[in-house]
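TEACHING EXERCISE
Course module: macromolecular assemblies
Task: Read the component lines below, then compare them to the predicted structure of the full complex.
Student: A.B.
Group: 4
Components provided:
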Amino acid sequence: MKRIADIMTQDYPTSNGSMSVGAALEWMREHHVDSLPVVQDGHLLTVFDLSSLTSVHPNRLLCDALQGSVVTVTPDTSLSTALDIANTNQLTILAVVENNLYVGTVSTAEIQENLGFCMDSLTDLPGLEALKEKAVGYLDQEQEIAIIILNLENFHEFTKEYGHSVGMQMIQEVTRSIQKQINEDMDFASCYGGDELVILTTRRISDAEKWAENLKKGIEEIRIQGISDSISVLTGVRGGSRNGDRTVNESTIIAEDLINLASQAAFESKPVLLQPQEDPKAYEAMISSLNARPVIVGMSLHTTGTHAEVEVTLKLGEIIHVGTSRGLSVAHSIPRLVADATLQAAALFMPQEYSFMLETVQTVNLSVGGSLIVVVVTLSGPDEIKTLTGSAMAQEDPYRNAMKAALHAVNRILTRHNQPKFSTKQDESYLFGGKAGMKLDLN
Amino acid sequence: MTNEKGKVLLKLNISEFELPPTKDALVIGKNAPIGTEAATRMMEAIAPDQFIPLRVEDKWVESIILRKSILHAISSDLLISSILEDVRGLIQYQPLLKLAIHVSSEAEKSFEFEEGEGLS
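Instructor-supplied answer key:
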């Protein structure tokens, strides 16, 4: 989880306070900065903004124009906390102070960007990173949380059918509908991609499940003028908490697990549209594609002298891919090769422009006994670079654990890219139990 | 053909520049064009180690730069409250005031005499 130290800059201009207010204003306008920290002997005196300086006599020194207290963060402050502080105090930059010494500056825009805020999109909701930070904060305090996934099931098809601007109008209405029902004291909504909303809530799981149904209903009732079709929503809700002293990263792992599990629950809630007896092969393919995630078929390890080669075979529906990884045949490096080969195979289920890079494979010993294998992966795509984490409880077979943890890390993104495609047009022949009104396109 | 003639009149007002520019204190208003830090640096340059800035909690006054020796005769709290009372009406319109402070003390003692005693 990123902290302020990861994104702050030490290059932001500062003054020692000897400049006159008039000269400072002129300098700020010329350099297009709207805030100026004043630092003397390493100590931060204040951070001026343009509006606070314009009311001061221009002949005064900056150090003679100090007013009130200064709001700061530390390098260790989480991004979401820092953003809350900046928003509460209406600041465009935050000074970073450690042990009473000024160490850098961070802008609100930079924080938002790193939190994955969709500021340019129409939702104006924070991204998943911001939600994860909040979730980790709650879990660290041993508070119970629930994650709600709202998957706008046919949003892409809706946009394709009615055009981009209608699609954008719809997403705006969806966001508005959710925001109306949000209680800021206990709920935090974020967007993930263009068609999925993830909500963190401290409501009890049973209440969260009921509330998720209300959110779903609210979205499905939205109509854009002149268009009868609506958006259908898949919901998944999972809750959990953390008890007692555990490892440092455990809250992060739990938060990610809950998101993955809720996402999985959302996909599993997809209505079955085909009857098995109608077309058994198509039905099997549909069920497989609904799961939309590969399963492990097998693994082989070949060692020659000091080198080892690992092959991992994954299957998704009827498609099989094999991933290979080579390296030194030292005992502790084999799980890494296994995880790498798993990712190589998994990447073949993704569009070509995406790739997975294995960062680390670590075993974390839990204080309650047992251990967890944790795999960290970097996903690179045309519009995104993000860190994915997967874990598996360490069982007897360390190689299988490495495969499971690697798959766990990428399952969510694989699911996103391997969902079945639906048409918004009604086709009675594919209805099952009168539920839903869409045709499954298996091609 | 024109014949223009110009005339420049030079008038000088000459007076002594007092060092330091204030005798005992400089009252700095919140709207003054010079602040406490700059005024303190100025006084320190002109009269080293003779003046001290006293920060003030007041609606109009930011500080009083005071001759240190005054504090030997009167406490800073008493002095500040007296000065604030006296400058309050003026500082809103003249945010930089110089002061001369005269501190004098009076002593009176009384003696009781026994019968038969007294000043002779």
